[in-house]
Write a structure and sequence with these properties.
It comes from Comamonas guangdongensis. This protein has 364 residues and is an alpha+beta fold. It has two domains: 170 residues, D-amino Acid Aminotransferase, Chain A, domain 1; 168 residues, D-amino Acid Aminotransferase, subunit A, domain 2 (D-amino Acid Aminotransferase, Chain A, domain 2), CATH 3.20.10. Helix content is 26%, strand content 29%. Strand 12 and strand 13 form a beta hairpin. Helix 4 packs across helix 5. It is globular and about 60 Å long.
Length: 364
């Protein structure tokens, strides 16, 4: 038996679980990332020992030393995924194996401990199972946050010798304001998200920390999100603060920036590409510059633009603001292609339509 199968999860149920009526109240309209379930999963890694002390336990604060490596050298990675409750009551995850693969890739880039994909999946399923009463029905879902951080206490620039992997969860509704058919974005010409050779393809907290000043700037301009351009020429569109981006042209083709190490390889992005091609659409992973975006929107060559990610799923972009002014995409709302792809994707995620790709993973 290999080490992955030998690792056993000790289950210590929360001694004071949230009553069912309070869970029901909190599920009515939970703010994104504010309401959390009763439990968490933790696993520790120590150099020379590997992964050990796997626990499903009551959610609680961590006790860490002031010299904890993550506080000084930012060795931290995470994933974002969701659990859904179908109309038949079954609980499912969407392509969790891809999250497990990306988590390993992020760990490798950040010189962190390698977590086997089977252990990642077992940990996620364990939390979903014990906190399944927190999974909303309807359009809601349970957002899952697996993460890992360097827990060794030392001051010295090197990879840590100790790590903690953890999974927490929170019930969520829409990421953007309910009832909003399209969002407004701000194009950042001063700040960049990532550069070649950097950590752009890793899902690490540092990428998001660096993006917050641009997101704050976007909010000050009355925008919902920020769009980043490339670091070298400040010309080529890369991605939003936490989402990938697609463009729908007048000939029905889709285009999206290519993955070259500076863009996070989104699982929703990959799913949209495969789903669109399955629907007979042509998808081109090619560079697209900001001036072409503006000109194509004005001429009508560009019909729709949408962002995609685990939290926002598929969200139309209706208006673009930048230092030189603003422009509108199409009629400023959600286009037909965006609506179609969103309906197909969410339909599969929630078990309402057939899944020809075997993407849906049921939790026993």
């Amino acid at each position: 038996m290999n080490a992955e199968n030998q690792l056993q999860f000790a289950v210590e149920r929360c001694p004071d679980p949230t009553p069912a009526d309070q869970i029901a109240t909190r599920l009515v309209n939970p703010a994104f990332g504010r309401v959390f379930t009763d439990h968490m999963v933790t696993i520790r890694w120590t150099e020379g020992r590997g992964w050990h002390d796997a626990k499903v336990e009551a959610r609680r604060p961590f006790q860490i030393d002031p010299a904890c490596a993550v506080l000084h050298y930012a060795q931290e990675i995470f994933e974002g995924m969701k659990a859904y409750r179908g109309d038949d009551g079954k609980i499912s995850l969407f392509r969790p194996q891809e999250n497990a693969k990306r988590f390993r890739a992020s760990a490798a880039r950040m010189s962190m401990a390698d977590l086997p994909e089977t252990i990642f999946l077992r940990a996620v399923e364990a939390l979903v199972d014990i906190d399944r009463d927190w999974i909303p029905g309807g359009d809601g879902s349970l957002y899952l946050r697996p993460f890992m951080f360097a827990s060794e206490s030392f001051l010295g620039v090197r990879a840590a010798a100790e790590y903690i992997f953890c999974v927490i969860a929170c019930p969520v509704g829409p990421y953007f304001k309910a009832g909003k058919s399209a969002v407004t974005v701000w194009v950042s010409e001063q700040y960049t998200r990532a550069a070649p050779g950097g950590t752009g393809a890793a899902k690490c907290g540092g990428n998001y920390a660096a993006s917050l000043i641009a997101q704050t700037e976007a909010a000050a301009k009355g925008c919902d999100q920020v769009v980043f351009l490339d670091a070298a020429e400040h010309r080529w569109i890369e991605e939003l603060g936490g989402m990938n981006v697609f463009f729908v042209m007048d000939d029905g083709t889709l285009r999206t920036p290519p993955l070259k190490g500076t863009i996070l390889p989104g699982i929703t992005r990959a799913s949209i590409i495969e789903l669109a091609r399955h629907e007979g659409m042509t998808v081109n992973e090619v560079a697209y510059d900001f001036e072409s975006w503006r000109a194509d929107a004005a001429s009508g060559r560009l019909k729709e633009t949408f962002a995609c990610g685990t939290a926002a799923v598929v969200t139309a972009i209706g208006q673009v603001r930048h230092a030189g002014g603003e422009f509108t995409i199409g009629h400023g709302g959600e286009g037909q292609v965006t609506q179609r792809l969103r309906s197909l994707l969410t339909g599969m995620q929630r078990g309402k339509i057939a899944d020809p790709f075997a993407w849906v993973h049921h939790v026993a």
